Amino acid sequence: MGGRAAGYLLLAPFLVVFAVFGLLPMLFTAWVSLHDWHLLDGPRSFTGTGNYLRLLSDWRFYNALGNTVSIFLLSTVVQLLAALGLAALLNRPLRAATWWRAGVLLPNVVSVVAVALVFGQLFGDTSGTVNAVLQSLGLDPVDWHGDRLAAHLAVSVMVIWRWTGYNALLYLAAMQSIPQERYDAAALDGASRWRAFWSITVPGIRPTILFTVVISTIGGLQLFTEPQLFDPLGTAGTGGTDRQFQTLVMYLYERGFTDYDAGYAAAVAWAVVAVSGIVVLVNFGLVRRMVARS
Amino acid sequence: MSAPLRISRLAAALLLVLVLSCGCSGESGTIRLTLATFGEFGYRELVETFERENPGITVVTRVTDFDSHHKALATALGTGRGAPDVVAIEEQYLPSMRQAADKFVDLSTFGADKLRSRWAEWKWAGGLAGDRVIGLGTDMGGLAMCYRRDLFAAAGLPTDREAVARLWPTWRAFAGVAEQFAASAPDGVHFTDSAANVFQSMVSQLDHNYFATDGSYVAGRNERLKQAFTLAGLLGARGHTAKVQPFTQEWSTAIRSGKVATVSCPSWMLALIRNAAGPHGEGRWDIATVPGGTGNRGGSYLAIPAQTKHARQAYRLAEWLTAPEQQRRSFLTTGLLPSCPEVYRDPAIRSRRDEYFSNAPVGKIYAAAADKLRPTFRGVDDAKVRPRFDAALGRIEEGALGVPEAFREAVEQGREALEGG
């Protein structure tokens, strides 16, 4: 009993912070989503599921969902594979290892606004560096903001650049806990480095891989700052002239803070929660299967 | 049993700490006012003067970009916290703020209603919400057309501003000049910045645009709106635009590198061009009359959110900043067109020239036309609909849509944006 009380006490700071800044806002958002709620005027009428029904027949919502998933897949797959490779390189004996390991985290600590400014110049449609290089090679310039796939790629590059190093460090930490004997044994059996990597390293860090998949999933589904700032119009933009790269949270932002429709924006927020929930359940299933296997 | 109770007590204590730590401001005796604006109002020097003349008040200025500024204000008003003491509101956002008039201090309680004669009549009326005074006018957005003398010369066009103005009495003529320019323009130089910028200037010359005065959405039926859209859209479709929007990084780059020959120029745009083009642009840019003669595009008001704790001092600041003398100084430093007849009719203002813009007679071009300015009617939801039309023009520039389809799409998406709210 005493031990349990101490446990609660130790947890209390987190629970309080979570309740005040996590749970209450979420419940309030749910309450808002059941109303016709003007951002400035406040609630106008109770509409029940009205906002959700409208959401289900809103093509802009599906557009945003599609973009979010597309950017998420493009960025996460490349990002995690690159992180894996990077971690494997960092895990080998290196001169100035600490310097390299800290270095890969640099992109992550640079302010995202600065990142967006730099990538905005790289992927400028008319005066961008990437297009200048393409043209000097005799290729056609790419309409980075107008073409849907090109825009998704550009945003993904930004995300990949920011998060690869972070994930690599997580992988590296996990790799260092794999016993060296396994590699020695594999080497005796004549396994190549490549084979050892896939048969020892990757299975050895599986829980970490799953963790990063879950974290990138949540981050990917909530993607906002990078694509919003990628729009030349900044906070006024809706992800391109035809919503080519508008993500779910950007759509939420548009409805809530440009159109002042807080009720609808709240419904979008809960839709994001629902989508995240589904993906997390899928991940949970994967975790269980993996635990059973090992 | 007792754990949840303890948690809720802890939560209460934490909340209390949070509230207390946010509530206090400044050291005792001095009052700290925040003044939030967007873009360039030229208030930094003015505020220093104000602080000297009003010991005991310090003013913190906060400048963000146009959209973030208004979004932050909406959020602060919606949540009831975090609004500045004095805030600038641009005219296209004013109708939606007017709907939430009770979120602002009624300035007539401090005697603002007696100041009415300071401003041009329509400017004063714009700051009213029923019988409440919620905004005091700052600047107006008189229209002109900025152009690059050197690029015009290179394309074989006249460079003298009188002669240039004669080239484009109408927007149709302006489009004709675009063709002429393109025929012999230097490589990579576009006639104007964007279809949307041209469109917004044209629209601000109409008496109403997306909404009729009864508030109904008439974009699909407004022939003159459609004509403006078509003309601007064709400029984009025919490649006369550099596809860059003011207030963006790419716009600044295009202006700085001399890729744009004209920019339709409300008075507040002068500061943007000067900042973007830098010293290199001095003497290359010039200002001529806008096609269609005049027009009002933009201009702002200062308002005081009702959540302020220092309404009286905030009013003193807002009243002082919008007074004729300060508007005069603001015009001289930033080129913002005053909304006080006493100032814009002043011969000293009318004879003002701007060295940067090839010594253009900005007093004559902007101030002399100020009396003739008529605001275009702004519906409550103007700020929701306008971006859809700008985006559709962008689609034309990207080559994704033809002009008629783009107009239909803009009208339809505007309607969707309205139904959403």
From TrEMBL, chain A:
Its main location: membrane. One of its GO terms (cellular component) is plasma membrane. InterPro entries: ABC_transporter_permease, MetI-like, MetI-like_sf. It is a multi-pass membrane protein. It comes from the Bacteria. The keyword Chaperone does not apply. It is found in: Cell membrane. Keywords: Cell membrane, Membrane, Transmembrane, Transmembrane helix, Transport. One of its GO terms (biological process) is transmembrane transport. Pfam families: BPD_transp_1 (PF00528). The keyword tRNA-binding does not apply. Belongs to the binding-protein-dependent transport system permease family. This is Sugar ABC transporter permease. It comes from Thermocrispum agreste.
UniProtKB/TrEMBL annotation, chain B:
Signal peptide: none annotated. It comes from the Bacteria. InterPro entries: Bact_solute-bd_prot1 (IPR050490), SBP (IPR006059). SUPFAM superfamilies: Periplasmic binding protein-like II. This is Extracellular solute-binding protein. It comes from Thermocrispum agreste.
